[in-house]
TrEMBL record:
This is TIR domain-containing protein. Residues 1-24 form the signal peptide. Belongs to the Toll-like receptor family. InterPro entries: Leu-rich_rpt, Leu-rich_rpt_typical-subtyp, LRR_dom_sf, TIR_dom, Toll_tir_struct_dom_sf. PROSITE patterns: TIR. The keyword Signal applies. GO terms for biological process: defense response to protozoan; inflammatory response; innate immune response; toll-like receptor signaling pathway. It is a single-pass type I membrane protein. Keywords: Glycoprotein, Immunity, Inflammatory response, Innate immunity, Leucine-rich repeat, Membrane, Receptor, Repeat, Signal, Transmembrane, Transmembrane helix. It is found in: Membrane. It comes from Marmota marmota marmota.
Amino acid sequence: SSRFWNLPCGILLLSLPLIAGWTASNCLVTEGSWLPLVSRFFLNCPLNSRLPLLAVCTKVTNLTQALEAVPQSVEGLCLAGSISVLPQDALSNYPGLKVLGLNLRLTRLLPGALRGLGQLQELSFMAPQSKNYLFLHPNALDDLRSLQKLNFLGPCLDRNSSIQLPTSLRQLVVRYSCLQDVGELDDIFPDLAHSPFSGDARTLDVLDLSFNWQLKMASPGALQGLRLGTLHLDHTKMDAAAVLSLGLQKLKSLSVLFTVTAELPAETVAHFELQELQVGNKQIGHITLEALAFCHSLQSLVLQNGGLTALPPNFLAAMPRLQRLNLAGNQLQRVRLCTNETGFVSGLWTLNLSDNGLLALSPATFSCLSHLRELLLQRNQLVSLEGEVFQDLWRLEILDLSRNPLVNLGGGWLAPLPSLTTLNLLNTHILFRPTWGFWGPESLHHLRLQLPSAPAGVALSLPERLTSLELQAVPGMKHRKLFPNVFPILETLTLDGWGLHLETQNISEIFPALRQLTLLGSSLEALCSQDTSNFFLWQLPGLQSLKVRGDGHSPRPCCITGLPNLQELKLDALKYRARPRPVQLQELVGELPRLRVLQLARTGLETLSAAAFQGLGSLQVLVLDWEKGLVLDGGLQERSPQMPQYVYILTSSLACRCANAWLEPWFEGSPRTYMWVQPPQLCPAESGGGSKHPLFPFLLNHCQEALELKLFGGSFAFLLLLISLPLLQEARNSWVLYLQALLRAWFQGLRGQKNEGKNFLYDVFVSHCRQDQGWVVQELLPALEGCPPEGQGLRLCLPERDFEPGKDVVDNVADSMASSPITLCVLSHRALRTPRCRLELRLATSLLLAAPHPPVLLLIFLEPVSRHQLPRYHRLARLLRRGDYCVWPKEDEGKDSFWAWLRGRLGQPRCR
Ligand SMILES: *[C@@H]1O[C@H](CO)[C@@H](O)[C@H](O)[C@H]1NC(C)=O
Ligand SMILES: *[C@@H]1O[C@H](CO)[C@@H](O)[C@H](O)[C@H]1NC(C)=O
Ligand SMILES: *[C@@H]1O[C@H](CO)[C@@H](O)[C@H](O)[C@H]1NC(C)=O
Ligand SMILES: *[C@@H]1O[C@H](CO)[C@@H](O)[C@H](O)[C@H]1NC(C)=O
Ligand SMILES: *[C@@H]1O[C@H](CO)[C@@H](O)[C@H](O)[C@H]1NC(C)=O
């Protein structure tokens, strides 16, 4: 639509309806790559970051209205609210939709409700309340030719529905519903088991019936003939044995966590020759050898939270194909997986023994696991480890020992693990030992370590070839030196708490390859200069990502600056607000020319002004989270071409101050930035008690003075709104005329886009007010219009002289401005006091901001005008290129250089 003509190009932008005034909608729009930044607003929503453009709308009561704020090109859309009926063609404006989530109180879908969604791949019906019945027409899904995944998360389905499933369907999920018998599915989806087209059995990858708390029966033959990949029955009252009677033709994987299944479902495993089984339930207690004998087909077994205290002998030998074993959350204080009599070697790749209360590991525990790649032992009670435990694990790559009260590690305990790449020793109590000089295998690349307590002066010796390192300091411990002095390939460093003795000067020599730095705890202060400048001291030219999470009370802001390659910055929980004056954005960020993502949470930030964006030329997304009383400086609107493309203000409040009054009209017309402020934004009640007022209507009523100045806003809607405001009455006629002129000029600019390189009727449009006419006629005209060498040979357009008689004044102004490549504004004190003149200047400024091929704007001050007299125009100066304004000198000797300047700006003399 024409609203976007003044945008810098970019298909995505063009498709954003930037009218998305948040006052009118609760929809948040984002690109997939930015989804992680706003993911908590997409909760319960099946959207993923592979989709290029996504939207989520909450509190939807009128669908038509809500969708006005959603670009047609979205590929993922979630709607939450209280709509009960989805009408025909409800979403047919979104033919490219791939994923749709409906968290509405839907009771029925009218036929054709999903028409036009031929590309939809995933559809979810969610119900905020349980026992919400949803009636689907049998043909409701007919148009969804590409549907692969269908989720009902909450609503109950009527047994008579007879819903026809698309043939493309691969996954069906019915969770939190009212199912009591798997057989009900047969009525709801009569073609579930048998495809109506081929007559053959249907194939599904996944059927997920978990969290149907009432589900306890399986009518025999309910899924007769279905070929199924995975069946989920977790959190139901089903017994895994009942799966046998369903009539499934094929099943590869079964999950029955938290069901009434009280033992290993041996028969079921054997019948289907299951490859994967997940079972977990306190009642299991132990595993019988008889049951195990049926499980030889298993490749993956999860036996979680089963209350197991011991494993049967030959446990692994009974499952020769087993690759993944998860025994987490049981009560195995000791574990014996291998017996050395038989010489059996297991093919196990992954073993998860976390959360078990293991007290010790005997030397032969893992002796038959020479294929093991991953061993997870976190959250146990291990106090000491000797190398012999690992002696046969020569393929092991990942070892997690975190959250164990580990004190002693035998000398050379890692020596038997030549393939180890990843080691986690966080939250342990390891004591320093002098024998620690060697840190295990060459291959170790990823290390997470709680700094061992050690005598002062002892350097912490680490492997040199690390690529990622996380160090956790215990509060109060002495700072340690690092050894070696250089980590040549370390890319990722996380410092939790401080604890290291690192010089600021040569940090980039120690970590020459550092790309990602995360500082947790109060560590930012150590890195901030202590003089008045307060800027970040670590000069890391290669750094791309910096994340800082403070402890919630830092004494003063530290400005992150001088990191030429930083692309992502997150500052969290710093809270400088205890200081006497509020924090400004430019105190937190400085020169970061490559920064694309800036996330600020709980920093105590208050003021956001244009100055802060000067050093952030590449910023694409700004997220402000948990900030209170934000003030967005009005200067941002002229800055808007340089503002980030997306600004999200989440769980934060805007200050109820007139300084924010310009925002609403700007939101509605903002030509480039997509800005979303999480509603509701409120002003306190005037008389203390009583109800609060919505922010913007309140500001509109109380801040007219502030609003009047904000004409640069730039949307037609805003301008038309302004026209009708009573505050303009004093100068109604001229204002209205000029506003109309502005619109006309814009439209002409739009048309002008098509005929680039057109011949302009005039060279310069001169905007001046009547009071300055004398100067224009006596000085300016001869100098510019006269033929060279005295004059410049230019064709000027003067409103008084050149307006076509009889033509509408509005047309005249608009046409003249659009037909001159240069607009010259002559300003004086008198001019600035005249509303009409001010308006003309604004008009020119707006053109400059809005036009696709902006005219050159030059300013001439007839007398020095102080900044204070230019309260509304000082921002203008920023828009001007350097040297686009000049003061007319009082003395004669300055005049030559004045004319020289002007000629230089206007270009070559010419004469026709
Ligand atoms: C929903 O909003 C649209 C557009 O704002 C309006 O035309 C329509 O009347 C509204 N419908 C209801 C039921 O309020
Ligand atoms: C569903 O079917 C039963 C019997 O098959 C019938 O009594 C009932 O009225 C039907 N309900 C609807 C909503 O069609
Ligand atoms: C191991 O088990 C724990 C506890 O259930 C779980 O959090 C973790 O994701 C599991 N890891 C793997 C790789 O299965
Ligand atoms: C393995 O065998 C040796 C003798 O060959 C025996 O001493 C040891 O106790 C056995 N270990 C286990 C765990 O059975
Ligand atoms: C550089 O760092 C090393 C090790 O941290 C330190 O010993 C050395 O004194 C530092 N050099 C300079 C010039 O700061």
